[in-house]
Design brief:
Blueprint: E1 10-13, E2 16-20, E3 23-24, E4 40-43, H1 60-66
Antiparallel strand pairs: 1-2, 1-4, 2-3
Length: about 70
């Protein structure tokens, strides 16, 4: 398994670093959530690799609309 030190984790939401070195970072109230696209950056502070992940809309309206489907 890959080594991971949670005390080195940094997380940004829309370029506001809300987690720095595994602890509280900048004030979450600084994160601008008015726009449809939200960018989350997770820096594990290990190596130079990177990945891009696109996720879907999980708002209450989306969940309600899709809850009618049966499996």
């Amino acid at each position: 398994s890959a080594a991971f030190d949670p005390d080195r984790l940094n997380v940004a939401i829309n370029d506001v670093w809300v987690c720095r070195n595994g602890s509280v970072g900048d004030d979450r109230d600084l994160v601008d959530m008015r726009y449809r696209e939200v960018r989350i950056t997770a820096d594990l502070a290990e190596g130079g690799e990177s990945a891009v992940i696109w996720a879907n809309d999980l708002t209450a309206d989306y969940v309600h609309e899709n809850s009618a489907y049966s499996s």
